[in-house]
């Protein structure tokens, strides 16, 4: 207390020393987050508790006298600010003029400790004519687009919290869809599925069909899902749809290495193909498998809502979307057809989109004719494949099928596949999939239509199918995170070491996975064209 705690009768100068007697959690050491420099105790504690200190005071003279006294410091760990009034998306009017306070007069956050807060505001994306003035966003946003705004509150003691929202100028909404009077067939039971697909639809195995029992594909549900999938209304700006990144002619993958969402910021990973996405042994989706669970949880109806709401993708607020769809002339009837009533909810949007993705079954490729008979009888590939394709099939079954099952060609393993010695992308953060904390572990999409779904890998680094084959043939890197499947007994990378004839054969086989009827099937096409 600035040397005022103790008085000396002789007015001698006094010397203070402070010792730690006890602190909860650390016993004889100072509590985490605190420091003691001389007699000054400072810092930001990270846990609640208390510390017992002893202060010794002397006058530093011969025959000195001294006195000691205890000090108990009660510690209340700092609480970070808490979001109290989230900013809703802000739609810019016809003039493009913007003058907005994202702190909402300092009420966006509250501090549980009553600490004074400071605010910071930042912008991401095409800012056009916007700028930050103090804590306000001012300027003009004259053309269609969106900018991501982050407002951060800090309490001065290490605590902070942030919220992101979008300021957007939307385009005019799409026209109405053109739907045939005769409804397309999507339901599994109505399709001429090969035996292995049909059996999996009924009992999950052997393809690990993730179609949930409470949201099976129906004709009306998938019809609604198809309209939603192609409707640009699903983005905040009315400019992007699910199909913008998942093109039917490319197996519902993207021909771009990195697609761009409504903010104009390139995405960090290549868009995954959706054909046969429903067949998934891990029941985990996205490259990093962040949407994962059991086969009764986190089904595709939940997965599809992630890009819908992601700011760098469609950036749509659920409340905005429900109101937007309800204001159309056609969605209430489509929802009534699918669900029995015209009510529009975000859960129903997810269910319908999930049904459409479930319906994206690729089962009419040349490989199906060779490997997936209609009935429970042995396949005779030699009746369909030529000699080169048969050779490629043998290579695939021997060297590739540990990670890619050989019927729906869905992924059955996730791994660091040796793209880099040190991966710049952490990959999955799910401990069960990381296997001992490995970096760069990714899920792969189904190999169906792989010949038309370039570019390849999570970062789209390979432009051709031959480049992918060359990677596994000779390019697997000796990463410390390399999966055991791709290691030899001595720990070195396991590579295919194929001859040119073998590489040609493997590529020929992979091209038999192209399902032309699927790529051009009208029931999967854009209803707004």
Describe the structure.
The chain is an alpha+beta fold and 529 residues long. The chain has four domains: 15-75, no CATH class; 82-169, Immunoglobulin-like, CATH 2.60.40; 188-363, Orthogonal Bundle (Cytochrome Bc1 Complex, Chain D, domain 2), CATH 1.10.760.10; 366-517, Cytochrome c-like domain (Cytochrome Bc1 Complex, Chain D, domain 2). 21% of the residues lie in helices and 17% in strands. The strands form six sheets. The protein has a four-stranded mixed β-sheet with strand order 7-14-13-10, with no helix packed on it. Strands 1-4-5 form a three-stranded antiparallel β-sheet, with no helix packed on it. It has a three-stranded antiparallel β-sheet with strand order 8-12-11, with no helix packed on it. β4 (49-58) and β5 (66-75) form a beta hairpin. α9 (387-399) packs across α12. The longest helix has 13 residues, at 346-358. The chain is globular.
């Amino acid at each position: 207390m600035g040397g005022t705690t103790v008085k000396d009768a002789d007015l001698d100068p006094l010397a203070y020393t402070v010792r730690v007697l006890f602190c909860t959690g650390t016993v004889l050491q100072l509590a985490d987050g605190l420091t003691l420099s001389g007699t000054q105790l400072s810092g930001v504690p990270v846990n609640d508790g208390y510390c017992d200190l002893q202060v010794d005071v002397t006058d530093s003279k011969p025959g000195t006298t001294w006195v000691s006294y205890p000090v108990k410091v009660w510690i209340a760990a700092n609480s970070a600010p808490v979001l109290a009034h989230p900013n809703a998306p802000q739609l810019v009017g016809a003039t493009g003029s913007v003058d907005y306070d994202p702190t909402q007069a300092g009420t966006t956050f509250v501090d549980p400790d009553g600490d004074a807060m400071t605010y910071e505001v930042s912008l991401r994306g095409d800012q056009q004519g916007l700028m930050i003035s103090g804590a306000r966003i001012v300027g003009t946003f004259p053309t269609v687009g969106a900018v991501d705004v982050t407002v951060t509150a800090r309490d001065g003691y290490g605590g902070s919290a942030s919220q992101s929202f979008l300021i957007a100028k939307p385009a005019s909404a799409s026209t109405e869809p053109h739907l045939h009077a005769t409804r397309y067939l999507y339901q599994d039971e109505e399709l001429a599925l090969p035996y292995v697909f049909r059996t999996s639809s009924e009992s999950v195995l052997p393809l690990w069909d993730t179609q949930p029992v409470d949201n099976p594909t129906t004709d009306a549900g998938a019809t609604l899902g198809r309209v939603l999938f192609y409707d640009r209304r699903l983005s905040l700006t009315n400019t992007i749809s699910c199909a913008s990144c998942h093109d039917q002619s490319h197996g519902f993958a993207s021909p771009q290495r990195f697609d761009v969402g409504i903010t104009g910021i390139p995405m960090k990973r290549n868009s995954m193909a959706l054909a046969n996405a429903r067949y998934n042994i891990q029941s985990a989706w996205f490259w990093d498998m962040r949407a994962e669970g059991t086969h009764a949880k986190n089904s595709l109806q939940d997965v599809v809502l992630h890009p819908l709401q992601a700011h760098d993708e469609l950036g749509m607020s659920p409340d905005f979307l429900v109101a937007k769809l309800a204001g159309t002339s056609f969605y209430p009837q489509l929802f009534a057809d699918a669900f029995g009533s015209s009510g529009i909810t975000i859960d129903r949007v997810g269910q319908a989109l999930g049904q459409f993705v479930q319906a994206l079954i690729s089962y009419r490729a040349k490989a199906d004719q060779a490997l997936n008979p209609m009935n429970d009888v042995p396949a005779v590939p030699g009746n369909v494949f030529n000699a080169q394709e048969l050779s490629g099939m043998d290579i695939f079954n021997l060297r590739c099928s540990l990670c890619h099952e050989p019927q729906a060609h869905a992924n059955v393993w996730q791994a660091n596949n040796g793209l880099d010695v040190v991966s710049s992308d952490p990959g999955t953060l799910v401990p069960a999939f990381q296997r001992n904390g490995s970096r760069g572990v990714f899920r792969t999409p189904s190999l169906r239509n792989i010949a038309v779904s370039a570019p390849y890998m999570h970062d789209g680094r390979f432009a051709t199918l031959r480049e992918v084959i060359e990677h596994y043939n000779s390019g697997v890197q000796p990463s410390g995170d390399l999966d055991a499947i791709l290691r030899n007994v001595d720990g070195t990378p396991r590579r295919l070491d194929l001859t040119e004839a073998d590489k040609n054969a493997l590529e020929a086989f992979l091209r038999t996975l192209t399902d032309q009827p699927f790529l051009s099937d009208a029931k999967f096409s854009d209803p707004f064209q």
